[in-house]
């Protein structure tokens, strides 16, 4: 990347919840008999912050305690309250990217009353259209979140993108359909190169590395094509940040003074080979 073209940003992740006691085979569409019976591969819940001296961008908004209880998930922290660690009040946030409208990424929108919400147009069409008549398709969505997005549309605060768009100077969103038709990833220039917040375009490092998608899936071939696209956008394997991998919180340095957060703009503490080995050992 050209350091002189763009400002660089810090990229932070907060692990705010988990779904433990989850069999490894639940995280892959195709079980080729590779998982030992009883092997667990938990999924953690994250959201992300992109910031520098001039700008602050929130990527996804997590979900509230009530939703965690209803869906049997463990919430470590309220995602909105956790922003105070960074000296930021929700009411002051000006821009929020929603990677897709699933419940674990698009809750709490009402708590960001002054933010522009960046969403792919295709995502809004999908979750307000006939696809939602299918129980299995609508299950990861919550009507309250879809209604909140529509409310913002009517308030002129929903920014609908068609594919690639710049949301901050040098920071772009890119459509990567598959998990849902309107899933988008966020590409950020950092001091260590281009980092891509893949969100659920790859739940775990194992999904993209093994080309083995997560089973909540709308379109298989675009999902697989999306892995290639993400790799082309990022400056290396550990510049790709999966949406739910417990290793994200373990592999990157903690933020000084707010150690629930990890610094994705800094090099990983180990090599990606170490991370891959852990995944393969779990298979
Ligand atoms: Zn998710």
Q: What is the average per-residue confidence, as pLDDT, rounded to a whole number?
A: 93
Distance between the termini: 35 Å
CATH C-level category: Alpha Beta
- Please count the helical segments: 9
State the helical fraction.
10-25%
How many discrete domains? 1
- Ligand set: zinc ion
Report the principal-axis shape: globular
State Rg: 18 Å
Q: Provide the low-confidence segments as ranges.
A: none
Q: From the helix content, strand content and strand pairing, which structural class follows?
A: alpha/beta
Strand content: 25-35%
Question: What can be said about the biggest beta sheet?
Answer: 9 strands, mixed
The CATH architecture assignment turns out to be 4-Layer Sandwich
Element string (H = helix, E = strand)? EEEHEHEEHHHEEEEEHHEHEEH
- CATH fold name: Metallo-beta-lactamase, Chain A
CATH superfamily: Ribonuclease Z/Hydroxyacylglutathione hydrolase-like
Total DSSP E strands: 14
Protein described:
Helices cover 25% and strands 25% of the residues. The radius of gyration is 18 Å and the shape is globular. It has one domain (10-282): Ribonuclease Z/Hydroxyacylglutathione hydrolase-like (Metallo-beta-lactamase, Chain A, 4-Layer Sandwich). It is built from 9 helices and 14 strands. The protein starts with 9 loop residues before the first strand and ends with a helix. With 283 residues, the protein is α/β, with parallel strands linked by helices. The strands form 2 sheets. Strands 1, 2, 3, 4, 5, 6, 7, 13 and 14 form a 9-stranded mixed β-sheet that branches. A 5-stranded mixed β-sheet has the order 8-9-10-11-12, covered by helices on one side. Bound molecules: zinc ion. The site of zinc ion has 6 residues, from loops.
């Amino acid at each position: 990347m050209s350091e002189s073209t763009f400002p660089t940003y810090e990229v932070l992740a907060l692990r705010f919840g988990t779904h433990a006691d989850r069999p490894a085979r639940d995280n892959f569409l195709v079980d080729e008999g590779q998982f030992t019976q009883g092997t667990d591969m938990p999924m953690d819940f994250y959201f992300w912050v992109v910031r520098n001296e001039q700008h602050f961008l929130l990527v996804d908004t997590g979900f509230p305690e009530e939703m965690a209880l209803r869906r049997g998930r463990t919430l470590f922290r309220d995602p909105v309250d956790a922003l105070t660690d960074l000296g930021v009040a929700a009411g002051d946030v000006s821009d929020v990217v929603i990677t897709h409208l699933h419940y674990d990424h698009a809750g709490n929108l009402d708590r960001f009353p002054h933010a522009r919400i960046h969403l792919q147009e295709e995502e809004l069409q999908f979750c307000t259209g006939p696809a939602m008549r299918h129980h299995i398709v609508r299950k990861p969505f919550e009507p309250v979140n879809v209604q909140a997005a529509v409310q913002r549309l009517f308030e002129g605060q929903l920014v609908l993108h068609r594919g690639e768009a710049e949301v901050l100077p040098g920071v772009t969103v890119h459509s990567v359909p598959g998990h849902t038709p309107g899933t988008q990833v966020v590409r950020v220039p950092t001091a260590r190169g281009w980092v891509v917040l893949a969100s659920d375009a790859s739940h775990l490092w194992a999904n993209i590395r093994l080309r083995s998608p997560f089973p909540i899936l709308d379109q298989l071939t675009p999902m697989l094509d999306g892995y290639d696209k993400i790799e082309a956008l990022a400056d290396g394997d550990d510049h790709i940040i999966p949406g739910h991998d417990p290793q994200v919180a373990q592999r990157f340095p903690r933020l000084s003074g707010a150690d629930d957060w990890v610094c994705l703009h800094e090099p990983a503490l180990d090599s990606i080979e170490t991370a891959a080995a852990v995944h393969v050992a779990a298979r």
